[in-house]
User: Fold these one by one.
Assistant:
Number 1:
Amino acid sequence: MAHCNTIFSQILKLVPRHEFETLAKRHHSGRSFRTASRWSQFVALAMAQLAGRNSLRDIVENISAQAHRLYHLGSTKLSRSNLSRINDGKPYALYEALFGKLLSRCQGVVPGHTFRFKSPLYSLDASTIDLCLSVFPWADFRTTKGAIKLHVGLNHAGYLPEFVTVTEGKKPDVTVGRTLEFPKGSMVAIDRGYNDYGWYKQLTEKGISFVTRLKTNATYRPVSRRPVLKSKGLICDQTIEFTGTQTAKKCPVQLRRIGYRDAETGKRYVFLTNHFKLSARTIADIYQARWQVELFFKWIKQNLKIKSFVGTSKNAVMTQIWIALCVYLLLAFLKFQSKLQKSTQQILRLLHLNLFEKRDLMALLRGELPGDIQSNVNQMALP
């Protein structure tokens, strides 16, 4: 039977060690380590994400139980004080940079999105992570409440979080949206929280298409109308110009207004876009697909540790969030590489139960039994 390292060891090999150490040197501050290292920190916190550990004590005790395997992981044993000190003092920018490296690897094996057009499709949104203000005083949000905000531009090709920014909870969504540099020719689906007529004009000038919902109080005049298929739920398809004094000044370009009624709920939607070539129903479907970014936030909050934190400083919180996002990319890479129909959640559950088992990782994902169990099953089978 072929020898296999632990499942966790095989996962860590997806992170090139030489690249990690190069980044660690680039993002080092303070005194040099004696026994601990940034790699040991990453191993401990990545394990915490994959194994569902909730506290420093829990993480350290779990690592200590696997002390005989740390050498093969390239890691050293960390005490609670050491891990806490590294989380508080060593720059989280290392894991932000590592996220960029892992994202590039995922983009090399990612499948395309489900629409017929070839342009990149993004959904842009933000999610608030609540914090206790008395414990996290730096995360000022409201009078008695603290929070930070996770902004994500989700690429529908593989549902990868291609644009990620973490800000204070008070940061307006659209302020972050304006700073993102989407590729020319791409399509961006946004909700009304990103309403900014000046930004719509900038996107149009940059050759970036957007799909959003028109505000109910917007004033405009129809320039032309196109026929629609009411059997597909479409109500209208118009070219419009804004007539409001400030709105017309900020956005002097013609846009497309599409009315749509959901057959199941009967709810009426009015979409706004600067794309005139796609069918009206495709525009409606693009906005409906924006829900994938909401599902991303729901998944990562339910399955990874970004709501409860093992440190209280801003650096410790940001470190934990960026490592969680790196783990998400590792799971996505395994999903793409295995080419199986398993969901990311199913993969995470398999890893959670078998993290320190010595088995072939891809055989585990395929659902194959270990060699010794398989041989026992064959022996018990009737001739």
Number 2:
Amino acid sequence: MNIAGQQTYAAGREVLWALLHDPVVLPHLLPGCQSLVATSTDQYHGAITIRIGQVMETLEGDLLLEPGAPPRSFSFHAEGRNPDGALRCRGRIALQAEGPDATTLTYEAEFETDGRPAQVSSRMHQTIAQSFARRSLEALQKQVDIRTRVYTTTTDRQPAPSTSLSMPAVERLVMRRRAVAVVVMALSLLLVRKRLDRRRARS
């Protein structure tokens, strides 16, 4: 089974290359990734959960990135297994610079399954693979936005509560501060008067 596609990002080729090879970012680019630990340079071991038909399959295995021509292209090989079957995938990703701040990512991949994951139809396999690729590209877009400082959350769309005080509130605050100041001054005068009375009594 083969899939292919592309997407253009508002970022330089070096930025995309760095994100795709960052051990911290990479787990966020793989939908359903449960864990991913680097075992050597460009090689990882982890677990991923994928819905195949009506079953959620958790597969454990390895991912290998093979730099072909940094930062233009690289190949990848992935294999995951569980007691009920296996999934293997290999492919290639190319990064084509469209300018200083634009890059088109092109991908192509082929995959095969054994055991229970192979029992669903080829059409279902195609749908699952395309959905996985689409979600990966969307996750990469979020990471690009974070890296280029244009990422916003949905809560940012709500108007921020005003922190300025209305005029009546300002007047009340000023009057309150004045009242506190008057009380402090009165207490200070009272203390001074008591001290003077004590000194007179001693003399």
